[in-house]
Structures are given as C-alpha cells and as structure tokens.
C-alpha cells in the first residue's frame, strides 16, 4: 500500500542473499600446488637427488639419472648396450662441435625432466647441435620449427648454415625461399648496416643457389640481379666498407672499374671462387640491353 516497501519482496531478497552467501562460504579454497613436472625438474635435475650417473662435459658436471637419459637413443645405447660406459657412474663426454656450449647442454639435459624448453634465436643453433649429437628428435623438431617461424635478415644466413650442418632440409628450404622472395627488395627496406651485414653473411654457395633459382623475385630487369651479385661480391672483398647503402652500387662499380690489366676479375685468383654466382646470372637476358652491355664491359668482372 502507498509508498511502503514490499515486505514479501524484501524477505525473498534476504533469503536469496543468505543462500548466495552460504554458497560462497561453502566453496572450497583453491591453492596452486607445485606440479609434478616442477617437482621432478627441481628435485632430480637441479638438485641431483638420487643421481646414479654423473656426466662431465666442457669441464662441467651434471648429476643425472639413467632412467631419464634413456629417452635419448644415444644414451639408451650407451646404458643398455655393450658400451663400457654402461657400468660407469662417472662419464666424460667429448664435445667435438664448437656450436655446443654449457648453456645448451644444461637446457638439453634439463629437457629430460620437464615438458617445456625455452628456445630463442640466441640458443637455437647450440640446442640444435646438442639435439643432433644426443639424438633428441623432439628437441630437434622444436628447434627447426623455431627457426622457420623466426626467419629475418639477421637470422636467415645463420639458420641456413645450421640447417646444412645438421641435415634440416625443411629449414634449408625455408631459408632459400625467404631470400628468393626478398633479397632484391631488401636493399630498399633495410638500413645501411643491416644490408651490409646480410650481404657479408651470405656464403658463395647460398648466393649461387639464390641467383640460380627460378623463383628469385626480380623487381625490374635481369641486370638488377647482376648488380646484386656485384654489390655482394664487393662487400665480401671489402670487409671494412661501412658506407651508405645508396652509395653501395657506385662504390662497387668504381672498385671493379679501377682494376688494371686485361683479365676479367673472375679469371683472377681472387675472383675465381665467385665464378659460380655470376654463371647463375641469366646473361642472355642482360645483354639484350645496350646500356647493360656497356656496364658489363666497364666492370670487367665477367670474361667476354
């Protein structure tokens, strides 16, 4: 009646509040407990509790467990086969690969005790080296995946070299594809220091494959490919050059045109190792242009 509050509604709300309060009170408290994975990693790997084998590599000791190490075919053969190490509790490992460092070994050994491994551009090559040595297929696949997902001008050459060394065809292919699609345009997009560093890091073998590829993206005409190879060779020959990228082509032209003598540069001892790269340039498409032919004659790089 009138402006009096509805006592029935108030009673229902009060009852509802009590039920809600009761339900909240009755909720079990959740506390995050240390996971089994964390416990295993810290107790067995970090602290080395109940270790039955000590591995020594690069003058560092790791107190580990044969049961966990046998996840690797390398260690499984060592401990279950006829190797003399199968009965030893202290094993010294020879590490012939210079790419392998203490951090990579620690991460790889730790991977036997946990579900996740932190891989970055800084440690991926050493980790790939360790994974190959100890036949850690899962870690090797993760390293390859990380490389493919993080290709860039600063990493592509390093990853390509690692892919060749450790037999990772998928990474090798992706590195080539990355360069085929971008190399001719990177000069316009990268800073002077970045383009210089990239060119100097491209090996003769890699540049030959890129130039020879039918998938190489050429911005305008084939002479651009020739100029690309010329600038690359100039930077390989002149490790101290730190000029501006807009001066790179003109400085390369001046360098080769200043040479004396009748022999083309590729016929000299200094230039012979670059021959395969310039043989990959489609010269039949270059000599169609009179200006380009004049440039070839002035550079004296390719034999007539």
Automatic annotation (TrEMBL):
The reply on keyword Cell membrane is no
Tell me any Pfam family this protein matches.
Answer: BTB
Keyword Hydrolase (UniProt)? no
Q: Which GO terms describe its biological process?
A: germ cell development
Chain intervals with Basic and acidic residues compositional bias: 1-21
Highest taxon in the source lineage: Eukaryota
- Keyword set for this entry? Developmental protein
Annotated stretches, region: Disordered: 1-30
Spell out the protein name for this chain. Answer: Germ cell-less -like 1
């Amino acid at each position: 009646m009138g402006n009096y509050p509805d006592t029935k509604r108030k009673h229902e709300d009060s009852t509802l509040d009590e039920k809600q309060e009761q339900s909240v009170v009755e909720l079990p408290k959740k506390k995050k407990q240390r996971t089994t994975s964390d416990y295993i990693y810290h107790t067995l790997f970090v602290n080395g509790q109940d270790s039955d084998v000590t591995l020594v590599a690069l003058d560092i000791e790791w107190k580990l467990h044969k049961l966990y190490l046998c996840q690797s075919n390398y260690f499984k053969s060592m401990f279950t086969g006829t190797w003399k190490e199968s009965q030893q509790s202290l094993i010294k490992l020879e590490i012939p690969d210079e790419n392998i460092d203490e951090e990579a070994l620690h991460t790889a050994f730790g991977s036997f005790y946990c579900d996740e491994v932190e891989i970055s551009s800084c440690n991926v090559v050493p980790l790939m080296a360790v994974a190959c040595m100890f036949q850690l297929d899962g870690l090797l696949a993760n390293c390859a995946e990380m490389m493919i997902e993080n290709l860039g001008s600063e990493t592509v050459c390093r990853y390509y070299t690692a892919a060749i060394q450790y037999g990772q065809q998928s990474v090798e292919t992706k590195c080539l594809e990355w360069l085929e699609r971008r190399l001719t345009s990177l000069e316009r997009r990268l800073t002077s220091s970045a383009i210089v560093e990239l060119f100097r890091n491209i090996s003769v073998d890699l540049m030959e494959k890129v130039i020879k590829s039918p998938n190489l993206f050429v911005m305008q005409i084939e002479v651009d490919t020739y100029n690309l190879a010329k600038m690359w060779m100039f930077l390989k020959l002149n490790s101290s050059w730190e000029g501006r990228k807009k001066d790179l082509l003109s400085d390369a032209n001046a360098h080769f045109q200043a040479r004396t003598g009748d022999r083309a540069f590729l016929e000299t001892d200094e230039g012979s190792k670059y021959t395969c790269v310039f043989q990959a340039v489609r010269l039949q498409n270059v000599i169609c242009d009179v200006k380009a032919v004049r440039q070839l004659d002035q550079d004296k790089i390719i034999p007539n």
